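Minutes, project check-in

Agenda point 3 was the complex the collaborators sent over. CS summarized: two entities, 493 residues total, and the question is how they sit relative to each other. Sequences were read into the notes so everyone works from the same version.
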Amino acid sequence: MRKVYVKVTADFDPQGRIIPLCLTWEDGAQYFIDRVLDVRPAASMKAGGAGIRYTCRIQGREKYIWLEENRWFVEAKR
Amino acid sequence: MQRVILHSDCNNFYASVECLHRPEIRDKPVAVTGDAELRHGIVLAKNDIAKKYGVQTGEPIWAARQKCAGLVLVPANFPLYLRFSRLCRQIYLDYTDRVEPFGLDEAWLDVTGSARLLGDGRQIAQDIRRRIRYELGITVSIGVSYNKIFAKLGSDLKKPDAVSVLSKDNYKQRVWPLPAENLLYVGPATKRKLSAFGVHTIGAVANTPAKVLRAKFGKWGDILWCFANGLDTSPVAAFDACTPVKSIGNSTTAPRDLQTPEDIAVVYTVLADSVARRMREQGVWGRTVTICIRDNQLYSITRQCRMERYSDLTSDILHTAMDLFGRVYHWSHPVRSVGLSVSDLIPAAGWAQTDLFRDEHRRLRQERLNRSVDWLKSRFGSYCVRPAVLLTDETLSRFDPKSEHTIHPVGYFRR
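CS then shared the predicted structure for the full assembly.
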């Protein structure tokens, strides 16, 4: 597994919640996040890191996105 | 009421954080090291695999490599460790506000008041242990007991990722057989003295009459006896409690050996600037200047002297230190590292006794100069204004103890 930092567009609501809306992959491809299913602090043992983990539904599949301080990363296969 | 105290110790803290961030080295022997180029090349932490090869914290890199050929060396990344230390403390603070950090990777928690709400000490400890593993990806060992000393011993009993409970019912079986040096404040010298009269275990310390220990060690004898019998009553400090500063100091190992008084002047100028700026930031004046010198044979001396009056001027501190150095060091060997600290601190009152035989105008000018330079440095960084002497050798002067030095050693008896 590889740790890939990605560009994320997010919504900051007045209560201070941060909800990611869309992520842009290394090659420029955009993926819209259909729904955030869960938010909790968690470590990524596969990519190596820790932060706030968002469980998101993207194109019908569940994916994790981490907010590490002020950067977003995902676990990528190679 | 019996207290419930936890001591949480992050296992191989620096190495665990590095292994989390580099999955590819997790199954290899790993040592986190200082910068060898700057001659800070010692092992700061190692993982369990490296430990099996006998790699020890504090030994030079070459010695560690001899023991373990495939050792993976990772340079230390202190900002990252500070972040993980902060994240750990945030988790502790979910359970109690009485969290007393002991270095970056250890902390005591007094959860007496939370026990009714969140379960007994063991349950809270298990909860914290699980959360840290899940949320941060590193492991902790937690000791649960009714005083801080036994809680700390408990966190050493089982590693990694474990909880040990030492209660009034089981401490005689679990604590007393441990070697005396496991006790806080029993170092090599105390251990040697204890061994000399046949005391090798904590139980033996506990069963030695207190007056015998007192005769041998003075008031420390009583303290050790209390520690060994579980009678320590020191409280866990509240998280935001700040302890009064007793001294302010910085030290450095130079990138090359210091051969001449000019070299010494360069390094002391940087140290004095950092120390004096920190004093002015804290609003204190000091009187006692202490220097320590270590030569390249690793022989060190520490000497101190008093200034004529309390001061926070960079120039006063620097001149006192250089003067003291000139008197006590005779250049039998080149110098490897030096340190400078100021103690006997009082609050800066804003006024001072003037002196008929000193140029008070000069002093005022110095004060104004210090204030202006402090402001420039806080705005534009430590390197923006520098005394010309620092330009004579940039390899020696290019370090910034004030902003680089963020991790301080701590003692148990801080008040």
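Noted in discussion: Chain B has a mean pLDDT of 89.
Follow-up: revisit at the next meeting once the mutant set is ready.
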